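@here heads up, posting the sequence + SMILES for the pyridoxal-5'-phosphate run so it's all in one place. Ping me if the SMILES looks off, I pulled it from an old spreadsheet.
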Amino acid sequence: MTTIANNLAQVRQRIQSTCEKAGRDPHSVVLLAVSKTQSVEALLQAHAAGQVVFAENYLQEALTKIEILKDYPLEWHYIGPIQSNKTKAIAEHFSWVHSIASLKIAERLNQQRPEDMAPLQICLQVNISDESSKFGVSTAELEALAQKVDALPLLRLRGLMAIPKKGDSESAFIKLRQCQERLIQKGLALDTLSMGMSADLEPAIMAGSTIVRVGTDIFGARV
Ligand SMILES: *Cc1c(COP(=O)(O)O)cnc(C)c1O
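bot reply: prediction finished. Complex structure tokens:
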């Protein structure tokens, strides 16, 4: 086995054993391979080991990989920051976007999503640790944004995403889940919590994560 295949098997094993501990079905957690800065060759190794869902942070790099790999049945998620001038390419090339924190960006993606594609699947990125410097919608503004994004026809609001501050993962994951529960009570059909990375996928799954975003522990350290 290549190192990447080995690493993938280990990450899948961690997901499986944490799900057992949590009394959850292991199929209820999607492993998203975060491939930013990794080579096409590395992605192909992951794909050969059964990985189909990949996430990218940098648009130009992502578009190059998507074009080179267009004959493979891969699913692409965008998890990086989004400027207005990037929304068209994102709307045209991705299945999911996890990093929506403003109505303006959501409206542009809705306008620019090609009608012959499935709706763009959306997670709102929440500034869950309330860091003034961190990107994301505040918990106070979350419901208003969620209701407006949910009304956009070519987007499909699926859930919430967060990157907790270091050392704060466990309580942040529980808080994000509580945000999701409140929105569900308000009538939004949310089924997704995008939380947990290489270092903290276990507490994320314990708190209810349905998508873990793992880079380093699959591909090795980024260069
Ligand atoms: C890079 C990145 C990850 C992956 O982080 P690792 O610690 O390498 O697993 C997950 N989510 C986001 C938003 C990222 O930018």
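MO: Residues 34, 36, 57, 79, 163, 197-199, 213-217 surround pyridoxal-5'-phosphate (CB under 6 Å).
MO: One more: The CA atoms of residues 14 and 202 lie 7 Å apart.
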